[in-house]
Design brief:
Length: 233
């Protein structure tokens, strides 16, 4: 696909996404500017990623640390989000190239991030991953586990603890999906009520369920396939 057509397709997709965001916000009585789009680029060719950047997208999400580092070096003025599993031995390069980590799934990992952040003199924004659905294949704290260790987590230095992240099950049952998202929001509210740590961000919602996520309070939506649909036609 030539550059002109690529940008046209991406612009159409982006326009559709923004329209759905506005509609979901209207249904929920929210402001559209309170919802931030993170373009998930792990399967997208570089040309499409750069074209999105030229269209005004400044937040990009990668699941693989190595690819995040490579792409962040190409667009250093964008805000890069690590949304996938993070091994403790990959923390340093991620902190050198990203501003957000959505996938803190253990106290040991948060401690490692804190220690490396102190060495690098950075203050990364981090979100705690919560397995609200209870699925065995998903990473993250259980809600009960996070409540037990919350005081310790909230006191962690050298990081900016800004919210929680979850993923809904792959299902067509919108009630199940909605319950997962509302469960994360309720958990956030409980944690805030029990400490002085504010958690402004809820990272939830992907291409198939982001409207429900917005209705339930998402502030960061992680979209990939719906943004890049049709670019290989």
């Amino acid at each position: 696909m030539n550059a002109e057509r690529l940008q046209r397709v991406l612009k159409e997709n982006l326009s559709s996404v923004h329209e759905h965001i506005q509609q979901a916000c209207a249904r929920a009585g929210r402001q559209a500017e309170d919802v931030h789009l993170v373009a998930v680029t792990k399967y997208a060719p570089w040309e499409a990623v750069f074209a999105l950047y030229e269209l005004g997208i400044t937040h990009f999400g990668e699941s693989r640390p190595q690819q995040l580092v490579e792409r962040a070096e190409q667009i250093p003025t964008a805000s890069w989000h690590l949304i996938g599993h993070l091994q403790r031995n990959k923390v340093r390069p991620v902190l050198e190239h990203s501003g957000y980590i959505h996938s803190i799934d253990s106290a040991r990992l948060l401690e490692r991030v804190s220690n490396i952040a102190e060495e690098l003199n950075v203050n990364p924004k981090v979100l705690l991953e919560v397995n609200v659905s209870g699925e065995g294949a998903k990473d993250g704290f259980s809600p009960a586990e996070l409540q037990e260790v919350w005081t310790e987590m909230a006191a962690t230095k050298h990081v900016d603890l800004v919210g929680l992240m979850t993923m809904a099950p792959y299902t067509d049952d919108t009630t199940v999906i909605r319950n997962v998202f509302s469960g994360l929001r309720n958990l956030r509210d409980e944690l805030q009520a029990n400490s002085k740590c504010l958690l402004p961000h809820l990272s939830m919602g992907m291409s198939g369920d982001y409207e429900i996520a917005i209705e339930e309070g998402a502030t960061l939506i992680r979209l990939g396939s719906c943004l890049f649909e049709g670019i290989e036609d």
